[in-house]
Amino acid sequence: MNNEEYSHILQRMMSLCSKNEKCAYDIEQKLRKNNLPDSDIEKIIDELQESDFINHPRYVEAFVNDKLRFNHWGKRKISYALKAKNIEEEIINQKLKEIDPALYEEILNEELDKKINSMRKGSDSQSKDKIVRYLLQKGFEYGKIFDIIEKRTNIE
Q1: At what angle do helices 3-19 and 24-33 cross, to 10 degrees?
Q2: Residue segments in the chain with a per-residue pLDDT below the cut of 50
Q3: Mean pLDDT, the chain, as a whole number?
Q4: Does a structural domain hold residue 33?
Q5: 105 and 123 housed in the same domain
Q6: Pair 18, 55: CB distance under 8 Å
Q7: How far apart (Å, rounded) are the C-alpha atoms in residues 40 and 1?
């Protein structure tokens, strides 16, 4: 790849990163679709990180915020998704610890209410097992789920 092509691709990636947060994995996947050699991909990613277009702590913070507030994902699901993008575990753990416990519990309660309301009233389908499976699938921790269910004694 010549310098002009390299500059053009780098500018495109900078523009992409400036529109919303991206991690190195996202950019790498995008560049691989263009069949770039590994050495060029690595060089572009390094340059994006050096100029702070890629910043994993900032990316994780935005990702956690979005998935929690908009998708109502639990910490486990968020963590798995970030690990799949090769984000450093210590950054993930740090940002998950920063989640406001009151907000997290509020979202867990909202998801619990949503599931209870979606199940037919009076049928045996309103079982604790169904609710637990749903909340586990959303990525909430087993212990948290049972704590919240114990507080809500009307769930059988």
Answers
A1: 130
A2: 125
A3: 92
A4: yes
A5: yes
A6: no
A7: 8
